[in-house]
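User: Sequence in, structure out. Go.
Assistant: Echoing your sequence, followed by the structure tokens.
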Amino acid sequence: MNTIFQINSDELDNRFIESIKALFKSKKIIISVSEDIDETSYLLQSDNNARRLFDALDDVRQNKNLITVNSIDELETLVDNAKNSSN
């Protein structure tokens, strides 16, 4: 079972820990802690990245430079090609 908890650090207390222990009774678990960030703000921090994102949005709105994928195989090929061209 996978469960994601999103909680303010000020709200962490023994009740929270006890609820996790009850939910995963006698099971080995992994706890990963990360700061919740606003992905949009993060992506817009770089001027180059922001310009690329807004250009892509304009393309979608204008229905241009779109890629149509008809199968998973075709999608995988596109991904492989993109990876190879970036190397």
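User: And one key feature?
Assistant: The mean pLDDT is 91.
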